[in-house]
Design a protein that fits this description.
Elements (H helix, E strand, L loop, with lengths): L5 E3 L2 E3 L5 E3 L7 E2 L10 E4 L2 E4 L4 E2 L1 E6 L13 E6 L13 H4 L9 E2 L2 H10 L4 E4 L8 H13 L3 E6 L5 H8 L4 E5 L5 H8 L3 H14 L3 E8 L7 H14 L6 E5 L14 H14 L4 E4 L4 H4 L1 E2 L6 E6 L2 E5 L30 E3 L2 E2 L2
């Protein structure tokens, strides 16, 4: 594909002659030729264009548990890719080489929506993930890929921070089958100072997903020592989740490592994740997980009805499986919320880079 710039909607002209982007609550106001904070949405000829359509920073087949999704087609491979740029400014970004890129040469692969769907089929993937950077900023490309995937029986997964305005959000999630949303903290001060964003817009997205869609979604919170890991904040966050989303939304706690603009903060101890999981379970969250650490108990799925281990996980490798084909506990017959279709896949912890056509 040679074309990488396509016209987009969700913008309007301001009285002062600037164009305002209405995709996310940042509302970037742009003069001719200027790009938004995301870097990929740009004003051109008194309108807005997406500059990265059809181009990716790389493709890889991952275990779906790496997204992380523990209640959605467990054990299956997922074709993952991202582009460049991001609409948040997280100082701790763990994928900053892609999400914070301001170099178009980061986008080395070229792929049409139909080519991505066809490759997912060839590779035996059950789904395609928009990940590594936030699909909110390239949602037109993501929607076109989702439509091509659905036409051949492939599902689509959004890995996102959920920072999006209502109208494009409705359009975007109408084409998604599942999502993992980063709930980065439960403090607006954290969001403002460390992510250059606001918490309330993310909470609105979560409530929307729960009340207005059939999208299966799970939550992830990256715990950063001294920033968002206090007992008080974790308890308040879990209370909000139970009250507004219900107890069955899976919650993943993952470990921070020093990176990007927060290299002076230490790694997250495994004990912090275990403590957070304990708080979540005590607060009423039924399915809380630890990630990025070797913790089989914290990574496994346990029945909320009788306490039996339903899915054993060792990193991304599945072991004991005590679910019926329709996703019920084999001990007490309680249903496990999520999407389960017969026996689990056995993709394991493999990570396989995938080549598409080089950019031209």
């Amino acid at each position: 594909m040679n074309t990488t710039v396509v016209p987009v909607k969700h913008w309007h002209m301001l009285p002062n002659g600037r164009v305002q982007c209405d995709v996310c609550p940042r509302f970037c106001k742009l003069n001719e030729g200027q790009r938004g904070m995301c870097f990929v949405r740009m004003r051109q000829d008194n309108g807005m264009v997406l500059t990265t359509y059809g181009r990716s920073s790389g493709f890889c087949v991952d275990p779906i548990e790496k997204k992380p999704l523990n209640h959605y087609l467990p054990g299956t491979p997922i074709l993952s890719f991202g582009t460049a740029g991001c609409n948040l400014g997280c100082r701790f970004c763990q994928n900053w080489d892609m999400s914070k890129s301001r170099e178009m040469d980061t986008l080395m692969d070229s792929a049409s929506p139909e080519a991505i769907a066809a490759r997912a089929c060839e590779l035996g993937c059950s789904s395609v993930a928009f990940t590594y950077n936030d699909p909110v900023i390239f949602f037109e490309y993501a929607i076109d890929i989702a439509q091509a995937c659905h036409a051949v029986g492939i599902r689509t997964v959004a890995v996102t921070a959920g920072y999006m305005c209502p109208e494009p959000r409705r359009e975007f999630y109408a084409h998604m089958d599942a999502a993992n949303v980063d709930l980065k903290a439960f403090s607006d001060t954290f969001y403002q100072k460390i992510c250059v964003a606001r918490l309330d817009a993310v909470l609105d997205t979560l409530v929307y997903l729960k009340t207005e869609t059939d999208v299966w979604f799970e939550l992830t919170t990256l715990l950063i020592p001294g920033k968002n890991d206090s007992d008080e904040e974790l308890h308040a966050m879990c209370q909000w989740i139970v009250e507004h989303l219900g107890p069955d939304i899976p919650l993943h706690f993952t470990a921070f490592h020093p990176d990007f603009k927060m290299k002076d903060v230490p790694r997250t101890p495994a004990a912090t994740l275990t403590r957070a999981r304990k708080i979540a379970l005590e607060t009423g969250v039924h399915y809380a997980y630890t990630g990025n650490v070797h913790d089989s108990a914290g990574g496994s799925t346990w029945c909320a009805g009788c306490g039996a281990r339903l899915i054993e996980r060792d990193w991304y490798v599945l072991g004991e499986w005590n679910l019926t084909d329709d996703g019920r506990c084999t001990v007490c017959d309680a249903p496990l919320p999520g999407c389960f279709e017969g026996p689990p896949g056995q993709w394991g912890a493999k990570r396989r880079p995938v080549a598409f056509a080089p950019r031209r």
